[in-house]
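Limitations

Structures in this collection are predictions, not experimental determinations, and the ligand pose is part of the prediction. Treat each record accordingly. The example that follows, with coenzyme A as the small molecule, is included so readers can see exactly what is and is not provided: the inputs are given verbatim, and the output is the predicted complex.
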Amino acid sequence: MAYAALRSIGAYVPQKVLTNDDLSQMVDTSDEWIYKRTGIKERRIAADNERNSDMGAAAAELALERSGIAKEDIDLVVCATISPDYFNMPSNATIIATKIGLKNVTSFDISAACTGFVYILSIAKAFIESGMKKNVLIIGSEKLSAITDWTDRGTCILFGDGAGAAVISATENKAEAIVDVHTGADGEYADLLMTPNGGSGSAHDDLDKEAGSCFMQMKGNETFKVAVRTLTKDVKEILADNNIESDSIKHFVPHQANYRIIKAVGDALKMKEEQVVLTVHKYGNTSGASIPMAINDIYESGRLQAGDMMLLDAFGGGLTWGSALVPFSPLQK
Ligand code: COA
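Predicted complex:
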């Protein structure tokens, strides 16, 4: 049987830094309030002419280069995003595949908001284990600044731009395989976090009027509570299902939405500080890009070594949630 192994990681962050102090010039807020409630100090913002697919392509190029797998051997590209270059079509995955010179691939996007990377990990795993594909490029890429309401202090302080990518490939060696991926969703909570306008749910005549209101809206306080409850349950379940103790996790890589959510879930698992990967202070919430950007961070700082077991968890609009147990399994040179 074929198993699926995570071979490499890559990321891209835009140059422009937007600090909490910068935000306090734009809306009624302060560095102290934002840092205390979220753990965020600054976030990156893409340039006007920098597209989501440009960031995704840069992250994907890096992941491919590091994987040691030839471009012509990639047979599937999946992108998780809620801020694609074009809503509906063409897909970001298809644009990125073409930008980086991939031919003869299957490519599509998925929409699972901040859980997007965990979802595309499960898709890569399923395609590989079924034997349908062998080498899958997965990308989480977001230009959230384009769908942020910069007059709403309840949301604009949280989000940032960036991209991350990974190459997942087939292996016969179970020891290097992705152990498990959990995914879940509950549309009963759809209105907690959404872009309410601009889709086909809007009357045709209203689309022009609503063009400026295709922004994210969130009930932050309720979202926070559901996030902590759902994630704590989910990460405990994935560890128990696989008979893995939290102290054998080398890196706990949570979705980087809010330090207080990360801390609550980490504490419930009795994670030590050195196990918990944090980038929320410097990138804010980059939705589907946040987990691969965080994995890239520990890779580039030399903390991520071959064989290290990672526990990923994420939560987002939908509502969606998920977790994964993933060893880092680069191809041996
Ligand atoms: N600066 C200053 N004050 C702010 C503010 C800001 N940026 N945003 C909100 N406030 C105010 C509110 O108006 C409210 O004022 P009031 O008491 O006078 O009515 C007060 O702060 C408390 O608001 P509340 O929304 O209850 O704050 P909170 O402690 O829940 O923190 C969030 C707000 C958004 C930081 C927090 O709810 C959160 O992080 N939620 C989860 C968000 C998330 O992770 N979403 C993505 C999931 S992937």
